[in-house]
Design a protein that fits this description.
Layout: H1 3-14, H2 20-30, H3 36-43, H4 47-68, H5 70-88, H6 95-111
Helix pairs in contact: 1-2, 1-4, 2-4, 3-4
Length: about 110
């Protein structure tokens, strides 16, 4: 997985556990595609301070993922859900059963959206 994409994903999951400054810097870097120099200018600190903060925040986010594995579990669940949708898309079900199946898939997808 692309490092910056993964960093953004981890920020979405664990970002509230970072300090406000760490969260801001990671967001600008991973989601807004700012360079270190642009972040430094935006936040009023040196480029080196931004780099240090980014490295520290990334380490913290990866530490949470190693312990909790939420991102890994989301990816596994999404893979299974997509497989189920493909497998059962063309299966003929009674309307009530189709509605129930679609409802279950929707509920499972929504669980991770909160």
């Amino acid at each position: 997985m692309d490092r910056i994409f993964e960093l953004g994903r981890l920020l979405d999951i664990y970002g509230s556990l970072l300090t406000d400054r760490q969260r801001e810097v990671v967001d600008l870097y991973a989601n807004e595609n700012y360079s270190l120099a642009e972040i430094a200018e935006h936040t009023g600190v040196s480029r080196q301070a931004v780099r240090d903060l980014l490295v520290r925040a990334e380490s913290i986010l990866h530490g949470y993922e190693v312990k909790l594995r939420i991102s890994e579990k989301q990816i596994q669940q999404n893979t299974i859900l997509m497989s189920m949708e493909r497998r059962f898309h063309d299966v003929e079900l009674q309307p009530a059963d189709r509605d129930a199946f679609d409802g279950y898939l929707l509920t499972l997808n929504e669980i991770w959206e909160d």
